[in-house]
Amino acid sequence: MFVSESRSEQVAAVAAISDPQRRALFDFVCRSENAVSREDAAKAVGVPRSTAAFHLDRLEEEGMLETEFRRLSGRSGPGAGRPSKLYRRAAREISISFPARRYELAGDLLAAAVEESDRSGKPVREALTKVAVETGRKIGEQSGKIETALEACGYEPRNDANGTITLTNCPFHQLAQSHAEIICHANCAFLEGVATGVGEDPKRVRFISPAGGCCAEISSTRGD
After folding, report:
1. Number of domains composing the chain
2. pLDDT-based confidence at 92, cuts 50/70/90?
3. What is the DSSP annotation of the chain?
């Protein structure tokens, strides 16, 4: 199911290709059919081998490239030389936006709901509720604290003086604009699951009329 990278990890990965030489090396590796050596990358971009090695290793550290070691001569045994370090694009996907959006989470929920509906015969909306609650619960259990889970999912939670958690950002903004009924329904079910996963009362989640933020908030525990 959905796994979220921290915003700092995403920003660091994007920053890794902001340098012009590093971006040129990254683009060359991505265009290559096979994994490339430091020598080939340096020659293609027109930089010294040591410079190429530095930038390629930085891209590997940030998870943008993957590596393997292989002898390019085709020979083996004594005298065949040391294996070369080769680079290829990593399978990792990076998507960053300001403010945070989690359309991959929405897509995951909707696809899982269709599968659940096909398997169980339940109406899609009922299946979506079930999937959203279960997914939220798992994320809540992993996070341990409701604010941590909400931050990881892009809600930008803010506690007011009364203890109510206002969600100042909608992670599904564009979808909610065009499909408000279904997306907001799934969102509230997901948040109820998050609350359950961290040991909070899911009834704290309540629907509100959003004023630029999320359609839900987490009410105070003070009996309001």
Report:
1. 2
2. confident
3. ------HHHHHHHHHHT-SHHHHHHHHHHHH-SS-EEHHHHHHHHT--HHHHHHHHHHHHHTTSEEEEEE-TTS--STTS-PPEEEEEE-S------SS---HHHHHHHHHHHHHHHHHH---HHHHHHHHHHHHHHHHHHHH-SHHHHHHHTT--EEE-TTS-EEE---TTHHHHHHSHHHHHHHHHHHHHHHHHHTT--GGGEEE---SSS-SEEE--SS--
